[in-house]
Amino acid sequence: MGYEFTIMTADIDEKSIRKETPEELVTALAEAKAEAIMMKLESSNQLEEMSRSTLLITADTVVVYQGIIREKPTTAEEARQFIRDYSGGSAEVVGSILVTNLVTGCRKAGWESAEVYFLDIPDEVIDILIEEGITFNVAGGLMLEHPLILPLIDTVVGTADCVMGLSKTLTEKLIQEALVEATV
């Protein structure tokens, strides 16, 4: 996107935050991540040193399958079931983004969703994905851009970057809003 980023982890207990809808959940998780990172910055006096607009971007993503919210699978059995469920079917990805201007305190948030339709996913592919361990690091257990999964995607309704966890269009919109409000 042409921006220079510094990456920090929020180190929050995501499972302790529960909401009714996927949109509420991903928004609450992005907010909790922002609060945790701001506390880290504050404890190291980095917030006080900021004199120009510095933006904090936090995000979260979940997968919704048949109305059930799915986060990162925690066991091989759960990962296997997630992926088998998607085989020949579809899942919705819901992602939120929160942009916080650390100098002004201005916050802009939004969420997007996309649907992914899969071809049949062979058991051999599922076995390899679980063995690699990648399934335990991503919401819903699958990465759209994984070389074993990409050829098994039938259709994406929405944007691929939304599915991958950070909508470029929404991020850019929220960045501009956070910067414009800072100058008003």
UniProtKB/TrEMBL annotation:
Signal sequence annotation: none
KW Hydrolase (keyword) present: yes
Family matches, as InterPro entries: ITPase-like_fam (IPR029001), Maf-like (IPR003697)
Keyword terms: Hydrolase
GO function term, MF aspect, one: nucleoside triphosphate diphosphatase activity
Keyword Hydrolase: yes
The protein's name: Maf-like protein
Species whose genome carries this gene: Perilla frutescens var. hirtella
